[in-house]
Structure formats: C-alpha cells, structure tokens
Amino acid sequence: MFPNDELKTDLAHLAGLPSAAVDQFCTLAVQFLKHGANTKVFAGAASKLGVAVDVVEASVEGLCFLFSEAAKLRLTEAEFRECLAPMAWPTGLQDAMLALYLAEVDNIRLVQAELSMTLPRLHHASWRLDVQLASRSVHSMVNPLYYLELQLKDAAHPSVVLQLDYANMKHLTSVLEAALAESKTPLMKKVVRNIH
C-alpha cells in the first residue's frame, strides 16, 4: 500500500531537518520531476547538511515518488495528509509538504501527461459483408467475407481496413466480448481509475 516501507526509509531523514531545508528538498523533488536529476545540486545540498549524497538523492527520489503517486491518484488534501500520517512527522513538516503538493499538483500532472504513452483511439468503425454464393465451377457455395474499416485518432495510420473470413470474425468477436467483460470487473475499474 502507499506509502510503503521503502518510501518511509527514504524519507526518514527529513524528520530531523528544519522546515526551510524540507522546503528545499520538496523544491528539488519538483525540479527533479520536471527536468531530471542534477547531481551537482544533490552534492551541494549534501555538503550543506553534512550528510552523504546518497541520502539526499534517496530523499529527493522518495519525495518525487510521493508527489507523483499522489498526483496520479488525484489525492485530496485530506487523503494526502492520511498518506503522510504513517510517517509520524511533525505537523509543520506535513503542512509544508502539503502546501507544496497543492501548489505543484497541476504541473506534476502535466509532466506525467507529457511522459505517458498515447495509444491510438477508435474514432469510427464501418463494416461490409460480401457473400459469394456461386462460381462457374461450384454452383452452390457460401463464402462470406467481412470488411472492417477502422478510423483511428492519434495513430500513424488513421485508417485501417481488415478483411476477415467467418472463423476469424467469430474469433475477433469472442476476444472483444471477453475484453468488454474484463473491463467491467472491479480490479479493472480500479486500474482505470488510477490511470486517469
């Protein structure tokens, strides 16, 4: 569950720091999310605090994880406080972290949106059924062919045409029905809620 033991370990060092130093760590974490790691800044912060660079890096990465997960889960102020409760930090420290989270949550979500993968989305589907009833050599046969045209958004190829025989169409239908049934399960609803 969020927060886990590893996160608590990474952020344990922050409990003994003054609020100004914690504000700097939070600011570093937001900068880390936006621009990536800056080892020079980590080294400078470590020398000012008299700790190892690894401790500063672990604390900043822990704060990054905390802020990004909270933004991804769209935590409210009360829910964010609830996540900080197991850390047993002073109220002033929790208030400072909450204030920075609330100020930066929109920026964090924008960064997450830029880094996320965009998959093609179905815009329109049309189909046609062609049936060959006979030919010169065979007078009574039925050979159905399905043609599907899928128009996609956010795709390299905006239109895809599929030609399917009866067996493949039946298999495609069963796979899509199974996917639809799977999307209605509680686990899948929870996953979708966390993605958006």
TrEMBL record:
Domain COMM: 121-187
Pfam families: COMM_domain, COMM_HN
UniProt-recorded name of the protein: COMM domain-containing protein 2
InterPro entries noted in UniProt: COMM, Commd2
Native organism: Thecamonas trahens ATCC 50062
